Amino acid sequence: MAAMLLATTGMAQTLEKMQWFNEPENWEIKDGVLTMDVTPHSDFWRISHYGFTVDDGPVLYTTRGGEFEVKVKISGEYKERFDHAGLMIRIDKENYIKTGIEFVDGKYNLSAVVTHHTSDWSVIKLDKPVPFVWIKAVRRLDAIEVFYSFDDKEYTMMRNCWMQDNTPVMVGMMAASPDGEGFKAKFEHFQIKHLPDQRRLEWLEKHK
User: Fold this and answer.
1) Which of 151, 161, 168, 208 is found 20 to 30 A from 100 (Cα to Cα)?
2) What DSSP designation does 206 have?
3) What is the Cα–Cα distance from 74 to 112, expressed in whole angstroms?
């Protein structure tokens, strides 16, 4: 099936204006929902623990230069170990954060990989499978806070990590299937909200 692109309406971000990094073979945007067949044997990881580097998972992204809040609702037909989907915030191949839900040894996990030359990995194991999860990330100054929710109302922080400030980043939806032959992933209600620069707000407060 060829890639399909259908118009979206009423979206904070127009998905069809976003760009692909490692475009998957099959994907579709319809009514503001992105679905994709995740590329088999694809992932993002650098060096640590495993001793290899891979950078070939699909990401649909836009570019942001300042501070922002981004969130998305994620679901997927996870099958094999390490199948995962979520948000990507990326400066370059050596500096990125990917975070979402990951299927490990038959269990659903909230997952975050933070990479600054080498990757680390943190997980929160869930007691039972969930039909979807909301992931939200907030970039302020030189930090990114990552939150999860099961209802888009109550959010819990799962990670706070450093990322170089005043540097443009790729922000978008990513998925990967390192061990498997791919799976179907779905992303709904993707939204980015601009946040005014914190240092500028502080300057204005001092000089009003």
Assistant:
1) 168
2) H
3) 14
